[in-house]
UniProtKB/TrEMBL annotation, chains A, B:
Pfam families on file: PA (PF02225), Peptidase_M28 (PF04389), TFR_dimer (PF04253)
Taxonomic classification: Bacteria, Pseudomonadati, Acidobacteriota, Terriglobia, Terriglobales
Organism encoding this protein: Edaphobacter paludis
GO molecular function: carboxypeptidase activity
Cross-referenced SUPFAM superfamilies: PA domain, Transferrin receptor-like dimerisation domain, Zn-dependent exopeptidases
Protein name: M28 family metallopeptidase
PANTHER family (alphabetical): N-ACETYLATED-ALPHA-LINKED ACIDIC DIPEPTIDASE, VACUOLAR PROTEIN SORTING-ASSOCIATED PROTEIN 70
Extent of Basic and acidic residues compositional bias: 476-501
Family: Belongs to the peptidase M28 family. M28B subfamily.
Length: 718, 718
C-alpha cells in the first residue's frame, strides 16, 4: 500500500493534470513543442503517470541492493535476471546481452606508512565500519562479499616511496608544486577527492613522474565538515572509502582493450589491444580519512599553499622530505570477465520512423550495494517500465521504437553502454535520443544535464510532473536553484551556464550518456534528484542509508520514474522531433566568443571570423527551422530525419586531438577535468595549451561542422 | 654590536639616502609636499635614520617583556620607569602621568560544562601550556603572575544556562539564529573570535537577552588551520586564549566612569558615574579551542548554517536543546586603580606654531608579556626617541612642539590615551597630528591606516626608508599588497578602499588614535609591520615567540623606528602642513555616493542633493588650497591654522546618535563592528537601521560640516 504522503501526491497530481487534459480541447496546447495537437498525448501522459508506484520502487530498491553486486559477480547476474523479469512482465521484448571485458578484482591491497625511524604510522585499508551501538549502526557493513577498497583499473604494483601532498591533484595543483620546487618524481602522491575525476588525478600524477597515487576523502569536502557523518547524519564517516575507476576516461571509455569496437563474447583475442592508453601504469588506491589522517599528520616540509588545507585537525604540509614513507602493495586479478546488459524493446508502429530509436538507460552494477548509485535509478526505471507496460495493456503503441537498457560495468568505465553503443553504431546513428539516469535519487532536488536542443524539452516535461514538495517539479527545481549556489553531487557544476530559467548542466562525462552523445552524436539528457549524498561509492550507500536520508517514502523515486517515462513517451510519439536548435545556436555562439576572449587574453593570434560566421549561419537556420517545427508538414518524417542529422553534423570523424574516440566538436569531458564538460573542446584545449596551430585547425573543423549543420537545417526549412 | 644583516641594511640605507642628500641641491626637491626647500630636512632625515638601532630595539623589547605587566601592576610601573629613563636620556622633558581608573582583575574564573546527565564535559580555563619537550616549549608560560584568561570589563557573575552557538556573534549571525527559531534568551552564547570586536559580540548578545557569553578562538580562524601552532610555528596552540576587553568601545572608550573628562587622581568620586552604559551587564569570558572543543562537540540541535562550521574535527550544531549546560562563575575585583602614562616633550621653537603639537604614541601595558602587542611598538618608539635625541645633541630643534606618549591601560579600553586626551582637549584642538603604533612588528609587511589627508604623507615617508627586503619600504609594501589579499592582523580590512597605490585603511578603532581623531579631530595615522601573528593576547605573545617568528634580528623594529620618526620630524618641521585635502574630498564624495546607492537599494527616500553639493564644494576648495600649499606664503602660520581647522570642521559637537562621545562625522568605529571603521557613520548607520528621519538629519549635519570645512579652505586659498 502506498504511504500516506504519496497518496496525497497522487491526488495532487490528479488536480494538476486536469489543466493538461482540459487544455487538450484548446489551441493553447499547440505550445507543447513537437505536437500538432497535444490532446491524445496528454491523455496517455496522465494514464502513464498514474502507474509508477512509490512502494513498488522501494521494493525494487530493496531487492536490487540486498547484496553487493559488483559487475561480473554472480550477485550482479541476479540483478540482471530481476530487471529482465520486470521488463518481460511489462511486455518488453527482453534480452540479456553479455560482453567479455577486462576488469580487475582486488586480491590483496595493502597500504602502510612509516615514519623516518621505521615506526608504522598506519596500515590499511581499514574495513569500513560504523559503531552498531550508535544510531543503529549499519546492517550491511559486515558482508564478506564486500570488496576491499580499491580503484578500478589500477595496475598491480609494489612501490615504496616518500609522500607528497598534492591537494586535489589538478593540473594547477601539480604546477603549483613544481613552482614551489617540490618534485613528485618517484614519489607517492597523496591527493584528495574533488575538483576533477579521479582518473585525471592519476593521469596527471603519472605525467609528472609519480610512482603511485593515494586518493582520500577529506572531511572538508566529504565528511564531518559538511554535516553529521552516517549513521547520525548523511555524510561520510571516517572509515568510508570512495571506490572508483581510475581509467583515463577523457581518452576513451569502455573496455580498455577494444576502443571503437564491441567486446562481444566471440570477439577474438587478436582484436583486443595489448597496452591500452586509457589505463594508468602506476598503482592507485583510495583511502578513508581515517587512514589518510596519520600520513597527513606526519608529513612535514613546507606549509601548504592557500586553499590546500583540509579539515583534519592539524596543519597540512607538502611532505617530500623523507619523513613519511608509504608502501603500496596492490595485487589485482585482471581478467576478461562477463558482464550483462539487459535490453527491453517496444517496436515502433510508424514504418517511416520506427527505426529511429529512443533509448533510455541506467546502470545496474555497483561498487558495493549501490542504493543511490545506481539502483535508485534502476528502481525508478523499473517503475517507468511498469507504467509503460500498463499503457501497452491499454492499447497504446509508440510511433518510434523504444529501448530500455540496464547497463553493466558502468563503474569501471561506462563499459556496458559503450560496448553496446559500439556494437549498434549503425542503428544509433539515427537514434533520436538517449535518456540517462544514474545517481537518480539521493534527495529532493531535481537536476539535469542535456544537450542544448533538449533543455527546453526537460523543462516542459518537469512542468507536467507534480513534486512531493507541492506544485510541479519544474517550479520546485527553479525555486531551489534560485536560492542555492551549493551542489551536493559529485559532478562539478562550475560550468553551469547562468540563465534565468531552471539551470541545466552541459554533459561532461561520468555516466552512460557519454558514448551516445560524444561518440555518436545521439542527443542526450541525464537527470537526477539530489540531496546530501555523503556515502558515494562506499559500503554505506545502501538501503539503510537511503531510507534514512534520501527518500524514506520513495516519492522521489516515483517522481523520477514519471519524468523518465515522459521523456521516453514524448520523444517516441512527437509529431516533430522537439529539438530546440535555437538555444543550441546561441550557446555555441557564446562558446566561440568566450574562446576568442580567452585567446586574446593569452595573446594567441587566431582568426575566429569564419567560425563566428558559421555559428551565426547555424543560429539563423535554427530560427527558421524552429518556425517549421511549430507548423510541421502533414508528413514530418523527412523533416525529422533532417533535424536529427544536424546533431550528427557536429561529429568529426577524426575525433579530438589525442583522443579520436571522442568525436563531438561541441562537448567532451575535459582532458584535465574528466567529469566536467569542456565546450568546443578541440578549440579550447588548444588555446589552453597555447598551441595556435592546433587551435586554428580545430577552428576550421568546427567551422566546417557548423556550416554542415546549417546546411542540414537550411535544407529542412521551407 | 649590530647583527650582520642589520649592518648590511645600514650600508644599504647609506647608499639609498645619498639621492636625497644629493637632490637637496636641485629644485626637484620641491616635490616633498609641505616644504619650500627639502635640502635641510633631507640632511636631518639622514642623520636621524642612522641612529635607530636594531640591537638596542631588541634589548628594549627583552627588558620590557621580561615580566607580565598588566596595566596598574607593579611590573607595569617598572616599564613606565624604563621608558621615562630612555625619554630623559634622549633629552625629553619627561613626566609620569597617573590616572585613577576603573579596572577589573580576575579573582577566580570558572567555566564548566555538563551534559544532560550532569557529567562534566570540561572545566576551565585550562592554563595556557605548550609541551617543553617539543620545539623548545615556552620559557615564560609558568610565571605565577600571569592572570588567568579573562575579559576586561566583564562583570562578576554566576550563571548557569544552556548553550547556543552563534558563529562570530555578528548582528547578522544573531538575526540568522532568530530566523531559524533559535532563541538565545537566557542562554549562554558561545561565539568565535573574528569578524567584529569582542565587545560588540557581547553588546549584541546582551541586546538579544543572553545570560552570558563565551568567546573562543576557532582553529579555522586562529590556529592549526592557518599554519603550525606555536612553538613549532607561529600560530595559536590549542591552549592559548585571546584575552581582551569587552567594553562597548563604539559607545565610548576610556575610563567607563568618566566619559568626556579626565580621571585624574584628584577627580572626586561625585564626578564619576555609577552605571556606565559602555559596560556589559552579562558576564563574558574567553576560551581556548582546547576548552571550547568539548562544549561544541556535545552540542546537538540543528546543523549550523553555511559558513558557520569551524575547523574542529566534528560537525557543529546550534545547540539550545538542553544537552549542554554551562556554568560560568566569574569573580572580578573591580577597583579604581592607578595607571601611568609617560609623556616626553620637546618644545617647539616657532612662537607662532609651537603650540600646535605633534603627538606620537604607543601603549605599554600588556595582557601578559605583550612582545608584539604592544611592546614591539614601545621598543621601536624608544629607538625613534633615541634618534631624535641624537638630533637634539646635534643642535636640531623642532618648529612645532613634539610629544611622545607611552600610554597605559590601552587594553582595557584605550584608557591612558583617552584620559590624557580628555585632560588636554584645549591644547589638542589645534594639535597638527597624532601618530600611533600599537602592534608595531609581528612580521615583515608594512601596513597603515590614516585619515585621507595623511595617506600620501605616509607613502612619501616610506619612500625614504630602506626595507630589510631591499628597496624602500614603500616599494615592498606596494609589491606585497599587489600579490596578497589576505591579512594577518586582527584589524578587519574589508573596508580598505581599492586603489592603485599602496593601500591604506580607514581608522576604525582598537587603538589609541581613537580619542585623537574621533573625539577631537586630530589628523591621525596608525602604522605596523605585519606577519603571521597567531598568539595575539595570549601568554605566548612573548620574547621567545618574537625572536622565532616576528623579527629575529630586529631589523623591522629599526624600520618602524625610522618611519615613526620621520612622521614626527616632517610634521614638526614642515613649512606648510602636508595635509592632502584633495584625496579627502574624493573619498568623502565616494562615501556619499555609496550611501545614496545603499538608500536607493533599500527604497529609503532621502535627499542627498545638498550633501553632494557641499562635498563637491569641499573637493573644489581642497584643489584650490592644494595649489597654495605647493607655493606657500613666506609666513605660513595663518595658512596652517586654517588647514588644521578644516579637519576640526568635521566634528559635530553633539556627537553621533546614541554615542555623543564620538564627534567625527566622517569616521567612527561601527556600532556593530568595533574595529572596522564606518564612514559617514551618522548617515550610514541610520540607513542600515532603515531610519529615514535620522538619516536625513544626519545628512544635514554632514552637509553643514562639509560647507564649514569648505569655508575654511576657501578662506585659506588665495
Amino acid at each position: 500500500m502506498t504511504p500516506p504522503r504519496t497518496r496525497l501526491l497522487l491526488s495532487l497530481f490528479t488536480v494538476l493534470a486536469v489543466p493538461f487534459v482540459g487544455l487538450a480541447q484548446s489551441p493553447a496546447l499547440q505550445q507543447v513543442f513537437g505536437y500538432r495537437d497535444f490532446t491524445q498525448q496528454a491523455k496517455w501522459d496522465a494514464a502513464f503517470m498514474a502507474i509508477p508506484d512509490a512502494k513498488l520502487a522501494g521494493e525494487h530498491l530493496k531487492i536490487l541492493t540486498a547484496e553487493p553486486h559488483w559487475a561480473s559477480s554472480p550477485e550482479d547476474y541476479k540483478t540482471a535476471l530481476y530487471v529482465a523479469d520486470k521488463f518481460k512482465a511489462a511486455g518488453l521484448e527482453t534480452s540479456i546481452v553479455p560482453y567479455k571485458v577486462l576488469l580487475n578484482k582486488p586480491v590483496s591491497i595493502l597500504i602502510e606508512a612509516f615514519d623516518a625511524d621505521g615506526k608504522k604510522l598506519m596500515s590499511g585499508p581499514t574495513p569500513e565500519h560504523v559503531d552498531p551501538a550508535k544510531y543503529g549502526g549499519d546492517p550491511g557493513q559486515n558482508d564478506p562479499r564486500i570488496l576491499t577498497a580499491f580503484n578500478g583499473f589500477s595496475p598491480s604494483g609494489d612501490v615504496t616511496a616518500q609522500v607528497v601532498y598534492a591537494n586535489y591533484g589538478t593540473l594547477a595543483d601539480f604546477k603549483k608544486l613544481a613552482s614551489l620546487g617540490i618534485s613528485v618524481k618517484d614519489k607517492i602522491v597523496l591527493v584528495r577527492y574533488g575538483e576533477n575525476f579521479r582518473g585525471v588525478k592519476v593521469y596527471i600524477a603519472q605525467q609528472y613522474g609519480a610512482k603511485g597515487v593515494l586518493i582520500y576523502s577529506d572531511p572538508a569536502d566529504d565528511g564531518y565538515f559538511r554535516g553529521d557523518p552516517y549513521p547520525k547524519g548523511p555524510y561520510r564517516p571516517a572509515s568510508a572509502v570512495q571506490r572508483g575507476s581510475v581509467q583515463f576516461l577523457p581518452i576513451y571509455p569502455g573496455d580498455p582493450e577494444t576502443p571503437g569496437i564491441a567486446s562481444t563474447p566471440d570477439l577474438p583475442d587478436s582484436q583486443r589491444i595489448k597496452n591500452p592508453v586509457d589505463l594508468s601504469t602506476i598503482p592507485a588506491n583510495p583511502l578513508s580519512y581515517k587512514d589518510a589522517k596519520p600520513i597527513l599528520k606526519a608529513l612535514d616540509g613546507p606549509d601548504v599553499p592557500d586553499g590546500w588545507q583540509g579539515a583534519l585537525p592539524f596543519t597540512y604540509h607538502l611532505g617530500g622530505t623523507g619523513k613519511v614513507t608509504v608502501h603500496m602493495h596492490l595485487q589485482q586479478d585482471y581478467a576478461r570477465r562477463t558482464i550483462w546488459n539487459v535490453i527491453g524493446k517496444i517496436e515502433g508502429t510508424d514504418p517511416a520512423e520506427r527505426n529511429d530509436w529512443v533509448v533510455a538507460g541506467n546502470h545496474r552494477d555497483a561498487w558495493v550495494y549501490g542504493a543511490v548509485d545506481p539502483n535508485s535509478g534502476t528502481a525508478a526505471m523499473l517503475e517507468t517500465v511498469h507504467g509503460i507496460g500498463d499503457l501497452l495493456k491499454q492499447g497504446w503503441r509508440p510511433r518510434r521504437t523504444i529501448l530500455f537498457a540496464s547497463w553493466d560495468a558502468e563503474e569501471e568505465g561506462l563499459i556496458g553502454s559503450t560496448e553496446w553503443v559500439e556494437q549498434h553504431a549503425a542503428e544509433l546513428n539515427h537514434a533520436v535520443a538517449y535518456f540517462n539516469t544514474d545517481v537518480s535519487v539521493s534527495g529532493p532536488n531535481f537536476s539535469a544535464a542535456a544537450v542544448p536542443s533538449l533543455k527546453q524539452f526537460i523543462r516542459e516535461i518537469t512542468s507536467e510532473v507534480p513534486s512531493p514538495k507541492g506544485g510541479t517539479v519544474y517550479d520546485q527545481w527553479k525555486k531551489h536553484e534560485e536560492g542555492n549556489t551549493e551542489t551536493a553531487n559529485h559532478r562539478d557544476k562550475s560550468s553551469k551556464e547562468k540563465e534565468d530559467d531552471a539551470p541545466i548542466d552541459n554533459l561532461g562525462s561520468g555516466s552512460d550518456y557519454t558514448p551516445f552523445i560524444q561518440h555518436l552524436g545521439v542527443p542526450s539528457t541525464d537527470i537526477g534528484s539530489e540531496g546530501r549524498y555523503g556515502v558515494y561509492h562506499s559500503t554505506f550507500d545502501d538501503y539503510n542509508w537511503f531510507i534514512k536520508f534520501a527518500d524514506p517514502t520513495f516519492v522521489y523515486e516515483q517522481e523520477m520514474a514519471r519524468i523518465f517515462g515522459l521523456e521516453v513517451l514524448h520523444m517516441a510519439d512527437a509529431d516533430v522531433l522537439p529539438y530546440d536548435y535555437q538555444t543550441y545556436g546561441k550557446e555555441i555562439l557564446s562558446y566561440i566568443e568566450a574562446a576568442q576572449r580567452h585567446a586574446a587574453k593569452d595573446n594567441l593570434k587566431l582568426d575566429f571570423t569564419a567560425t563566428l560566421t558559421a555559428a551565426q549561419r547555424f543560429a539563423a537556420a535554427a530560427a527558421a527551422v524552429h518556425t517549421d517545427q511549430a507548423n510541421p508538414p502533414a508528413d514530418a518524417a523527412a523533416l525529422n530525419r533532417t533535424l536529427r542529422s544536424a546533431e550528427e553534423a557536429f561529429l568529426n570523424p577524426e575525433g579530438l586531438p589525442h583522443r579520436p574516440w571522442y568525436k563531438h566538436l561541441i562537448y567532451a569531458p575535459g582532458e584535465y577535468t574528466g567529469y566536467e564538460a569542456v565546450v568546443i573542446p578541440g578549440v579550447n584545449e588548444a588555446i589552453e595549451a597555447n598551441d595556435a596551430t592546433r587551435a586554428q585547425s580545430q577552428l576550421a573543423a568546427l567551422t566546417e561542422a557548423l556550416n554542415h549543420a546549417a546546411d542540414k537545417l537550411d535544407s529542412a526549412a521551407k
